[in-house]
């Protein structure tokens, strides 16, 4: 019995040692694969490529449309001239430096487009008569776009290829109720001017459908203008100038539920801020506007309409009180 027990213990120890050694080998191989020093077949790589902290060895499915940017690692292969072959990291200027050929700017080019640029450079330098060039992307950086303003989830988002503006807004949780009809786009490319795009949730303006957002761009969804209707109305508060960003005096009063039974509609008051920052109070004959005797008034963002009642006309002399009421008013997003 003792001999059988000893043999069993020996076999168990040997088996445990074998399993531990195998596990260590697998861990070592996995670490080498993760560091990019070995290939999947377990052979050591011989090329000396500088590390890039934000590079990734995985290549996206839509690599054919992937635009090259700083930090990308490109493999350039030129038939009949091995001196031009190699792995090249794209620098912060969007350039690669190929020995015997010089610097080539490949920023915002696809792999196919970059290969064509290199082919033309070889022809210009008269190195080959009919160069055959291939470019492959083996590592890419994680470019981001910034989406701020009136969106559900402002922040930075990684995109590999250009996306339509509507897709970017959806990525950021869509627009909020306070969103206006203008989106400002700051381009990442140096020297390219900012772009303002009109955007409407109801009509889906074609201009917004056609706009592309590139990695590195910044998108700002502007807040809509707000018009305040206070005093003797059904629902006093602030009303967003949605859709096309226009609102008339009659529309604003209608959104607020119209004048109450106790309202004095001979004259209502429009408070508007001028360019110098001063607020001016102007009487408007609401009764005449409602009956078409006087042209309707186009409202501007931050305008305040005050509808007095017969018992509170003395409040009209207190402009500061009206301004304070507007500052604390509820904001409503009602389509009109």
What does this structure look like?
With about 325 residues, the protein is an alpha+beta fold. About 25% of the residues lie in helices and about 25% in strands. The protein has 3 domains: about 65-140, wza like fold (2-Layer Sandwich); about 145-225, Outer membrane lipoprotein wza domain like (Outer membrane lipoprotein wza fold like); about 225-330, Roll (Outer membrane lipoprotein wza fold like), CATH 3.10.560. The strands form 5 sheets. A 6-stranded mixed sheet has the order 16-15-17-13-14-18, with helices on both faces. A 5-stranded mixed sheet has the order 7-6-12-9-10, with helices on one face. A 3-stranded antiparallel sheet has the order 2-1-5, with helices on one face. It is rod-shaped and about 95 Å long. Residues about 20-60 have low confidence and may be disordered.
């Amino acid at each position: 019995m003792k001999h059988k027990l000893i043999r069993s213990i020996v076999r168990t120890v040997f088996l445990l040692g074998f399993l531990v050694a195998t596990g260590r080998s697998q861990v070592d191989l996995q670490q080498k694969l993760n560091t990019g020093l070995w290939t999947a077949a377990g052979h050591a790589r011989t090329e000396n490529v500088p590390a890039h902290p934000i590079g990734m060895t995985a290549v996206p499915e839509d690599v054919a449309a992937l635009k090259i940017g700083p930090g990308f690692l490109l493999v350039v292969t030129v038939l009949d001239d091995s001196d031009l072959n190699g792995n090249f990291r794209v620098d912060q200027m969007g350039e690669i430096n190929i020995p015997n050929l010089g610097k080539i700017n490949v920023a915002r080019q696809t792999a196919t487009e970059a290969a064509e640029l290199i082919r033309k450079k070889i022809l210009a330098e008269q190195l080959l008569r009919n160069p055959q060039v291939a470019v492959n992307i083996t590592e890419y950086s994680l470019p981001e776009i910034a989406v701020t303003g009136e969106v559900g989830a402002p922040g930075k988002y990684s995109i590999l290829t250009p996306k339509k503006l509507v897709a970017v807004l959806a990525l950021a949780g869509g627009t909020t109720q306070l969103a206006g009809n203008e989106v400002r786009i700051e381009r990442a490319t140096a020297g390219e001017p900012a772009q303002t795009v009109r955007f409407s949730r109801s009509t889906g303006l074609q201009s917004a459908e056609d706009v592309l957002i590139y990695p590195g761009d910044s998108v700002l969804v502007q807040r809509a203008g707000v018009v305040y209707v206070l005093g003797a109305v059904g629902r006093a508060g602030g009303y967003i100038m949605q859709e096309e960003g226009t609102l008339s005096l009659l529309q604003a009063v209608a959104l607020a539920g119209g004048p109450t039974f106790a309202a004095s509609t001979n004259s209502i008051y429009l408070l508007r801020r001028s360019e110098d920052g001063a607020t001016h109070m102007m009487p408007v004959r609401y009764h005449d506007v409602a009956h078409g005797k006087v042209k309707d008034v186009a409202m501007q963002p931050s305008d305040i309409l005050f509808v007095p009642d017969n018992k509170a006309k003395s409040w009209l002399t207190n402009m500061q009180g009206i301004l304070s009421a507007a500052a604390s008013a509820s904001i409503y997003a009602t389509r009109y």
